[in-house]
Amino acid sequence: MVRTFARAAGIIYLLVGILGFIPAFLSPPNGPDLAVDAFHGRLLGLFPVNLMHNLVHIAIGLWGLSAARTLGASVGFARGLAILYAVLAVMGLIPGLKTMFGLAPLHGNDVWLHAGTALVAAYFGWGANRNTGVTRT
After folding, report:
1. Which strand (E) or helix (H) includes residue 108?
2. Domain-wise residue ranges, the chain
């Protein structure tokens, strides 16, 4: 189950990262200015992204796909993703940090998306049943 989560999250984040580089999927940005303004916009009209944000999504996607190969790596991915995205959600609420010092937008709809991702990843990282079919006596 956690391996399926890692694979699905990997595919989703890889696709989202790629979509962020296609201008047809970006609306004009709203919110604070960024030092890195390449590909700055709102993905699907909802989520603020830019070049750095897209690269991070691609890296997370590749991490998830790689982690999906083993149970242990999948658990590590889910736990790491939960912690990372919880931190990003909190940063998105703090005025001085919501642009990661001008590098990437973390505000607006990204806050609830990051928080939701953190909760789902935490479930798979710490709470999901990891029955591997091995019976212990």
Report:
1. none
2. 2-127
